[in-house]
Amino acid sequence: MTPAEEPTGPKSLLAQRFRGFLPVVVDLESGGFNARTDALLEISAVILDMDENGVLFPEATHSFHLEPFEGANVEQSALDFIGIDLESPDRDAWPEEIALPELLRKIRSAVKKHSCTRAIVVAHNAHFDLGFINAAVDRCGIKRNPFHPFSCFDTASLAGLAYGQTVLAKACQVAGIEFDNSSAHSAEYDAEKTAELFCGIVNKWQELGGWPLPE
């Protein structure tokens, strides 16, 4: 964010809650585990909002199916696991150099709306997703990446603390969040369930008196 884009108005509750960061819940599907060599095939981002009582909730979901970048590695075992058919005529995939800037533009708009300084990735095992985002940003030559380059909020760790579970489906079950295993491994579905989980943990912490901190 350039100096001209720095928020000038009063900080929103959401900006105050996370030290100027806007949490954006991300999930992606890939053609393997190596962010530099393996294809990014799906990406979904859930932008969060906060009401006047400090209750955090999912506000909007933005999702894209992506074409593998030129020269990308795609493991058949990965496709089998996540259930993606790259040749399906219904897949409606975008080149990442078109889809990624569009997604990041929506996130930058939300950052500005909430008078935040930048976004921060929230994800289940978040450094995996952040690594793929950073690699795609580099490939596409994007100069205005709204996300913090290395900090993130990991719901696997948070769920381990809050519920004693680190697997997304099991954490959701303990938290009372409906989870359909047949829909899992879709970036959009997993991102929305991760967003429910993250919001639930943050809101429960507030109910217990953990935020705002006493003056």
Tell me about the largest β-sheet: 6 strands, mixed
CATH topology: the name is Nucleotidyltransferase, domain 5
* Helical run tally: 7
User: Order of strands across the biggest sheet?
Assistant: 4-3-2-1-5-6
CA-based shape: globular
Structure description:
Belongs to the RNase T family. One of its GO terms (molecular function) is nucleic acid binding. The record marks 33, 81, 128, 150 as: Important for substrate binding and specificity. This is Ribonuclease T. Its EC number is 3.1.13.-. The structure is a single chain. By secondary structure, the chain is α/β, with parallel strands linked by helices. It has a single domain (24-208), classed as Nucleotidyltransferase, domain 5 (2-Layer Sandwich). It has seven helices and six strands. The chain has helices spanning 13-17, 76-82, 96-113, 126-140, 155-163, 168-175, 187-207; strands at residues 21-30, 40-50, 56-67, 93-95, 118-123, 147-154. It has a six-stranded mixed sheet, with helices on both faces. Helix 2 (76-82) links the parallel strand 3 and strand 4 (93-95). Helix 3 packs across helix 4 (126-140) and helix 5 (155-163) crosses helix 7. The longest helix is centred in the C-terminal third of the chain and has 21 residues, at 187-207. It is globular, with a radius of gyration of 17 Å.
